[in-house]
Specification:
Its main location: mitochondrion. By secondary structure, this protein is of the alpha+beta class. It is built from 20 helices and 41 strands. The strands form eleven sheets. An eight-stranded antiparallel beta barrel has the order 26-27-28-29-30-31-32-33. Strand 27 and strand 28 form a beta hairpin. The N and C termini lie far apart (about 85 Å).
């Protein structure tokens, strides 16, 4: 009955909108869709499709056979090896075989492929995106700039021409001036983008941008633009139907980025007047209408943070990663809108009916090392515990505990989305929920996100694209290991070791009750060597007549009280250390000890003195080789054995997560050997270049 009532409401609303548009409906019912994507966006589409009674067909590559999206979908078909999500003909074949009427491309992969959109049209399968002509016009940045200028949308000065010779581009760069932005013509997501600060940097930056662009988009063409220092990145969510109507669902601020990629987004953009919000929205609608747009799209603008003038940057002709924050402030389901518009329905709401309420944040949780230059990571999620979802909290993810973050794809683990009545409330919720997001087994950016969201300037909304660089020192302060944290780690080891011990008379677990011949007046001692931040701490734990005492590095004994809190199989401890009572989670995985504290996680390594000595001998000065900072593919080797190199010289190019990383010499040296051939996979920490030992060289 509920589904029937909902269907009747949708049909009545749809009929009224058709009458308002004075257009003949072009309806093609959709009851099954193929999702030509993976991970969290595939799971997101499945969720809405199920709500609407639409069956879903997943596709999966070999590494994704047992992934979450294949489990959630009604059906799943193999497409091939890791890169097979780009096999448009195979995906179309699956659509026909499964009886699906439409294909949802998600974002990335085929979502902005002109060729795939045209192929779907020829084969009579609905592509749940804009017409191929709109993708083409907006996908080529030089073309889109000309169209936007004609439509009255402000654009930024630059070179968007066809002549891609080095001499022409150098001449145009000189006309524009430095600093200069080099962008892939078909780019997006920060790929194929470089900044040349001065003329002598130009050719190196140009070559690097071309290589990355070719790898990511199959096209090495670039455009040049004046680089606006510290601008804000503000984008507008637009939607258009097949009847020529278009609306905007307010704007998002995505200014804080690393490697030119978004990391935290919020809606609405802070500090804008209602008049400016309207101007941005109307400009975005003009942009969409100028290319005959249909479906979900995002128009991105550069906003000068001083005078608040804005200029068109690009249009993403797909659903954006950060679309949930627009949903949170408008009370809409944009995937539902996509399905309905693809079926031929008019827009569900007119512009005047789209209301804005409250404030929302999205934090992208990545497997990466922020303190190591945000280098991406990969590996198993050995421990995963997320915040509890609610109407104000969403966890958008495509992984479960035990799943692998693959080297083949983007290292995003999840999106944490929160809503509050105002920015302050939403930001407080974001920080608290990040503190509840617990991951062990690989490095993530959660600690960094907590520090970023807690930063005084971010709290004041003084955001811009150079925020991380400007506040680098305060965002990455030295990590200081406190005695309380060492005590918490030692207690975690004790409780983990004896978690099956009998409960004492008070119902609380006595960490030493299971010890052989334990007596109330019997003293027991545990000693742990805990390593953190390249330093080893000796932590001793003593039980004596019912009390627990801890001392660090032979210092004074400190009395503590502790008990294990019931939390299923999770290790949760309540401890009173130095008259400070706190409750925290921990995870013990072999020699790895992870604490989940108020300001994020803290990792320790349980080691023995012999291990430390051997490790120190093996590592030596640490400069006799260059290792892969993350797993990837050895794209190009720039040296050979016997070559003499200077400190800072480029040695090799590593491709990981479709991003190019240049390995440089840490010192003047002679090349001894190369650790792999071009095109081979290399593991994190593997020696790529080995130098001749200094003593031998001398």
């Amino acid at each position: 009955a509920r589904l029937l009532n909902n269907t009747c409401y949708i049909n009545l609303f749809w009929i009224s909108r058709c009458l308002a548009t004075k257009a003949t409906p072009k309806v093609q019912p959709i009851n099954k869709i193929v999702i030509s994507n993976r991970g969290e966006i595939a799971c997101r589409v499945i969720k809405t499709a199920r709500k609407l009674g639409v069956r879903t067909v997943a596709v999966y590559s070999d590494p994704d056979e047992h992934s979450l999206h294949t489990e959630l979908a009604d059906e799943a078909y193999r497409v091939g090896e890791a890169a097979s999500y780009l096999r448009g003909e195979r995906i179309l074949e699956i659509a026909k075989k499964s009886g699906a009427q439409a294909i949802h491309p998600g974002y990335g992969f085929l979502s902005e492929s002109v060729e795939f959109a045209e192929l779907c049209q020829r084969e009579g399968v609905i592509f749940m995106g804009p017409p191929s002509s709109a993708i083409r016009d907006m996908g080529i940045k030089s073309t889109s700039k000309a169209i936007m200028a004609a439509a009255g949308v402000p654009i930024i000065n630059g070179y968007h021409g066809d002549d891609q010779s080095d001499s022409c581009l150098q001449a145009e760069a000189a006309k524009i001036g430095f600093p200069l932005m080099i962008k892939a013509v078909r780019g997006g997501g920060g790929k194929g983008m470089r900044i040349a600060e001065k003329p002598e940097d130009f050719l190196t930056a140009l070559n690097s941008a071309r290589i990355e662009s070719q790898k990511a988009f199959g096209d090495s063409s670039v455009l040049l633009e004046r680089y606006v220092r510290s601008p804000r990145h503000v984008e507008v969510q637009v939607f258009a139907d097949q009847y020529g109507d278009a609306v905007y669902l307010w704007e998002r601020d995505c200014s804080v980025q690393r490697r030119h990629q978004k990391i935290i987004e919020e809606a609405p953009a802070p500090g804008l007047s209602e008049e400016l919000r309207r101007e941005l929205g109307e400009a975005a609608v003009r942009a969409a209408k100028a290319v005959g747009y249909v479906g979900a799209g995002t128009v991105e603008f550069i906003l000068d943070k001083e005078d608040l003038s804005f200029h068109f940057m690009e249009m993403n002709t797909r659903l954006q990663v950060e679309h949930p924050i627009s949903e949170m402030i408008t009370g809409t389901d944009l995937v539902e809108w996509q399905i309905r518009i693809a079926a031929g329905e008019p827009l569900p709401l007119a512009q005047s009916q789209i209301k804005r309420s409250g404030h929302a944040f999205e934090a992208r949780i990545y497997a990466e090392n922020p303190r190591g230059g945000f280098l991406p990571g990969a590996g198993p999620l050995r421990y995963l515990s997320t915040p509890k979802p609610s109407a104000e909290v969403r966890v958008e993810t495509g992984v479960r505990e035990g799943d692998e973050v693959s080297v083949h794809y983007d290292p995003m683990i999840a999106k944490l989305v929160v809503w509050g009545e105002n920015r302050t409330q939403a930001l407080n919720s974001l920080i608290a929920r990040l503190g509840e997001y617990h991951i062990a087994g690989l490095e993530t950016n959660i600690n960094f996100l907590i520090d970023l969201a807690s930063h005084p300037e971010f709290q004041l909304a003084n955001v811009h694209t150079g925020f991380i660089d400007q506040h680098f020192d305060t965002l990455f302060p030295p990590i200081v290991i406190e005695q309380q944290q060492l005590s918490q780690a030692a207690l975690s080891l004790i409780f983990n070791e004896l978690q099956a011990a009998h409960s004492n008379a008070s119902g609380r677990q006595d960490p030493f009750a299971a010890a052989s011949n334990a007596r109330l007046n019997y003293a027991l001692l545990r000693k742990y060597n805990l390593k953190a931040q390249d330093k080893v701490y000796a932590v001793e734990v003593k039980y004596d007549n019912g009390d627990i005492e801890i001392r660090v590095d032979g210092g004074a004994w400190q009395v503590v009280k502790a008990e294990r809190v019931q939390d299923g199989e999770r290790l949760k401890i309540r401890a009173n250390i130095d008259n400070n009572i706190s409750t925290y989670n921990a995870n013990i995985d072999g020699e790895n000890v992870t604490l989940f504290l108020e300001k994020g996680k803290l990792d320790f390594l349980l080691v023995q003195p012999k291990f430390l000595s051997a490790q120190a001998d093996q590592l030596g000065s640490g400069s006799s080789r260059v290792v892969a900072p993350m797993p990837g593919v050895l794209e190009k080797v720039l040296v050979k054995p016997g070559d003499q190199v200077k400190k800072g010289d480029s040695l090799a190019v590593l491709i990981a997560m479709k991003m190019e990383h240049i390995l440089k010499a840490p010192k003047d040296a002679t090349i001894k050997s190369i650790g792999g051939a071009e095109g081979e996979n290399v593991a994190k920490g593997a020696a790529v270049i080995t130098f001749v030992d200094d003593e031998v060289a001398n």
